[in-house]
């Protein structure tokens, strides 16, 4: 009996310690009388300050505590200055982590950092950082080369696409080994979600079984559900938002036509540059049963209306003026613009991301069979 009680005591002590973390942070540069902060990212993506310490004579601080909500994403934020350096670290309990950072961002260059630790989250984070940094270095070289040799754009673009696909393949190969550690959720940020739906579903099922109530897992599973909701062949989610004139217009009002949902904004340079091409496409196909439904991610009503008038966009437009918090953008999991979804007359998605020549060719083929 005594042996059992002793075992239980050791076991319970282990469980308690397993939730503890120790995070040592050393900054190459310090700002006098300014602190280093430890922040926690909640399920809504908001950074909440947990602790703050002044660096010691070795320019170092040590944060200790218990992880919140079964572990999560933390930020080390330096010195509460404009554009502070921030370093992400994933903690699930039981870690001893060391971060060496520059401590300062400059307009010319973001501060560098290194993270040391032997937990799976830290090991895989470093592998992802290495892959990302390798591609960024190549992009910097290609950018300089393009400035010197503008005629090499096609070759450089092809080389970039090959390098990008190689990075995607390496990240995909790492994800199964990450299991249900939170780093797996973070790794998905490095992949094109709409093209890796099968991988995300497989990963989501692992988390759904192992950690269904984790505060970071729940929004991931919800986003995955939404992403599946706009996959090709599925019925497009309803959009019901105000028009520039004020009344609510519904996407379903356009049933019976082929509809291009065009996510854009007045502040989006690529969107505005694409608009002349969209106008030509609209003119070519609008009398054949084609319509465009413009959904803006603007914040200012006047900027939205002025862009519609200036660019001469004559198709229906809606917006809730909520920027990236737009209900439509969230329903369709739009993370970059311009973004398009092409619907058939029954309201099902038949293509995504089409614009320019690819959109024209798709529509030409579509209507040639009518």
Shape designation: globular
CA(first)-CA(last) distance: 83 Å
CATH superfamily of the largest domain: Glutaredoxin
Number of helices: 10
CATH architecture of the largest domain: 3-Layer(aba) Sandwich
Oligomer: single chain
How many domain modules?
A: 3
What does the average pLDDT come to? 90
The secondary-structure class comes to: alpha+beta
Estimate the helix proportion, in percent: 40-55%
Number of strands: 15
Q: What's the SSE blueprint?
A:
Elements: H1 2-18, E1 20-27, E2 36-41, E3 47-53, E4 60-66, E5 72-78, E6 86-91, E7 96-101, E8 113-116, H2 120-148, H3 153-178, H4 183-187, H5 197-210, H6 217-229, E9 240-242, E10 248-250, E11 258-264, H7 269-285, E12 290-296, H8 301-311, E13 317-318, H9 327-331, E14 339-343, E15 349-352, H10 356-368
Parallel strand pairs: 1-7, 11-12, 12-13
Antiparallel strand pairs: 1-4, 2-3, 2-5, 5-6, 7-8, 9-10, 11-14, 14-15
Helix pairs in contact: 2-3, 5-6, 7-10
